[in-house]
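[SOLVED] Need 3D model of a two-part complex

Original post:
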Amino acid sequence: MLPPFDLSQPQSLADALQALAGNGDTRPLAGATNLVPDLRGKRETCRDFVSLEALDELRYIKRDGDRVTLGARTTIADILDDRGIKTDAPALYAAAEIFAGSMVRTAATIGGNICCGSPSADTVPALLTIDAEVTLSSAGGERTVSLDKFYTDYKKSVMRSDELLTSVSWNVPSQNSANLFYKLARRKGDAITVTGIAVMITAGDGVCSCARIALGSVAPTVFRASAAEDLLTGKALDEGIIEQAARAAADQCAPIDDIRASADYRLQTAFSLTRRLLTQAWRQVS
Amino acid sequence: MSKEKIVTVTVNGSTVKFVTPAHHTLLEALRHEGFVEIKCGCEKGDCGACAVLLDGEPVDSCLTLAWHADGCEVTTIKGIGQPGNADPLQKAFIETGAAQCGYCTPGMIIAARSLLKDNPDPSLTDIKRGLSGNLCRCTGYTRIFEAVQLAAKELRAEGEAA
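Solution:
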């Protein structure tokens, strides 16, 4: 049994933004695949929700030249059904494939996965490697924020309580790039991530022209291992430099012990998975 | 707080109306209305025992708010097939011995139905992904995968014959 709560069901985005503008105690509810278990488990204290269920205007996958935009209500199943995402965001597609179970993928939305702010959110490392930007809308207007600047702390972000994340967008990766994802968990599906990683390596003239490494479940938020990225940029990668970068990535982690794994194990796997994915990515592009 | 609302859903072809507050799930509401073939398992979207088709898409009814199902069509395991008029999936589950305690079976068949609708010739990997939100603590899954493969074969043969 869930605790009693209020739920308004606006039929348009404008009405939803009005409902959120009213007071700071109202929160949006989309697929509810995290919210319902959190309400049941008494981890969620909000008792006034705005349902996004009817907002089909936020459920779309658009392409404009090299720019891909997903409406926030696009479900994980929609991402898998759109075969274009496999090439437009290979790591995101890979993350969607192992996202929870099939029924959860039908309901869970990309906007919800981003906004829950969980360090174990499966889609976020992938989105960080493609320099994704999110649009935050409110009754007063909208602004675009780089996803890299979105999270401020564990389950905290720059999004105000009157704002709604309405879309996420990115540029299609260039031809000579490799974008990989790996989720370490107790099982391949239907499990919460122990260590999650996505990398993007772009090559040109025999060197790594651009590197992106994002790690999940090993710090209060998903984050980009920027020191490691800097080490790789402009260099022809080899075993030594990849090892150095993996060490730098692990140094940036701040993991905790929990029921799924120890902090030590997370550190060790952050190192070895970074090394593994960088090696695979470089092999693909060089 | 917690107003009540009349929700109308079509369950297996019949119209069902009930009054329910915002915090009741589709699972709770439909079981209360007597649709106890929908099983209550983990209540957090892990096990899939409560799966139903909502407008043809598989969902965990324990995660679906009853208000969100207003005006929708719900298919439960009884809407898939009944004794005497069983679905090829149900027959295949019986034939291969894919059910032991049977508690996960309604959800397994709902998820498998959805998989076979989109993919009539699934690989073993496709089946594993299609059933990735359904847990079975008895069988070790092998016979469940065999049942889905068998049903897929039957359905393809039916399709060719038609």
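Edit: Residues 56-171 of chain A form a domain with the Uridine Diphospho-n-acetylenolpyruvylglucosamine Reductase; domain 3 fold (CATH 3.30.465.10).
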